[in-house]
């Protein structure tokens, strides 16, 4: 296994009760506090997909710290899907593609599978 994705929090989960959201947001913080040394030791690289800029500061800091400390690791890629949703990713990607085409004066003829894939958060993963 070269890639492992943990679906930590969906974009749809923001509608849950605030106490539940807060609890879920602390899970990555606690997990990384406990297991980061082992992840480093086992050559695991921590990565994320999702809209992490909308997360609580403590969650962002824990994730960024783990990504920084494992950046040069070459083993398993542990991908946290946090504040991620497939539909949200599609909307985000389509808007980015539209803006790019508009700014470059291009039309939709350029759009093909590779072009779309290059605009997805999952572009680096099989």
TrEMBL record:
SUPFAM superfamilies in the cross-refs: Undecaprenyl diphosphate synthase
Q: Which UniProt keywords apply?
A: Transferase
Top-level division of the source organism's lineage: Bacteria
Question: What organism does this protein naturally occur in?
Answer: Staphylococcus pseudintermedius
Tell me a GO biological process for this protein. polyprenol biosynthetic process
Q: Where is the signal peptide?
A: none
Q: What is this protein called?
A: Isoprenyl transferase
Its Gene Ontology cellular component terms are:
cytosol
**InterPro entries the UniProt entry points to:** UPP_synth-like (IPR001441), UPP_synth-like_sf (IPR036424)
